[in-house]
Predict the 3D structure of the following.
Amino acid sequence: MQTVQSTVRIKTQWVRWVQAAGLAIAAACIAGCGGGGGSSGGGGGTPITPVGGNQVALTVNSGVANVVNIPTVSVTVCAPGSTSNCQTINNIQVDTGSYGLRVLSSALTSSLSSGLPVTTVGSSQIAECAQFAIGYTWGTVRTANVTIGSETASSIPVQIIGDLASSTVPATGCANGPAQNTTSNLGANGILGIGVAPNDCGSTCATSAINSIYYACPSGANCTRTTLPATQQVANPVPHFPVDNNGVVLQMPSISGAGASSASGTLTFGIGTQSNNTLTASQSFTTNSAGNMVSSTFNGNTVTAFLDSGSNAYFLSDQTLTPCTNSNYTGFYCPSSPTSRTATLVGLNGAVGTVTMNVTNAATLFGNGNNYAFNDLAGSGNLGQLDLGLPFFYGRTIFFGMDRTATGGSAPYVAF
């Protein structure tokens, strides 16, 4: 049985803490990209089998909290320098709209938890408040080895969610909405942020305590905002892999417009580094450092558009779409019949592509409590933003090129 109230996974992008993201809509297709998102018969389409150590299974099903459209992988976390104090954690949400690994403290064994060193500045522990539109995660920053498939990022900063008492949450700048520090609230055992940025805050948190999302906590309490060098901030694991570190590829099967009980795709590391990650996209859109296409258009207005596997629907602002009146589906759209909307994506490189989004009544979709994968689920988003959430990914192969400009490399991009 679906936990429908938890399905409204409206969240901010991790921004670089400058821009909020929002919600998302359904099956979209860029002109020239081929099919995608549409009906392909029943079930969850043809499962896509991982090939090679740089490729792992990406699964959508009921998960750990019965939340729809949550794509998950398994991640192995080890204490730095140890090959035995390790744990493979299932049901980690794959999020192309954030940067860095965050794992619930409750999902860790006591041995591993005690083996992950807490980041300190002076005598103070460092904690992070990572904010979403519906709430926040709060917990310490620690160092861990992170392995996904055969790829390992050694000794990188990660966030351990919920390992500090709720009484330590700072009243200033953090407690924005409810805490997302449990499996039921988060909808997964953690979040794997593999968006285009190398870390989750960058120069903003390195230079300004006022705008920082990091906190110094003497003795684990009395937490106050602090600056933190980028090298100590929660890090996107991908740029830290020895190879296959220039991007990621998400591939999901096509599914029926009525939804599917599950869907199985792949997450591939690297772009153009192995035979299984050749860049085959027909269009490539350069983005800003947060993965946004800031000059896109929807309903005649300029919008910031982004591709976010961590949003479980398409989220857009459209007053012509009927909102659901049933309180169980608050935040979603319930048009009387299936409809569609179009938008134009514009990359910083001038690339232009038209997106068509199919929208089906959310109450109808949720009427089958056995389905957890939907390609035409849409919700009410923030004005000026277009969140192409997981419905956009079904039936597509989508590439995310890492931001390598800091070392003289290529600018970030998305392609499909």
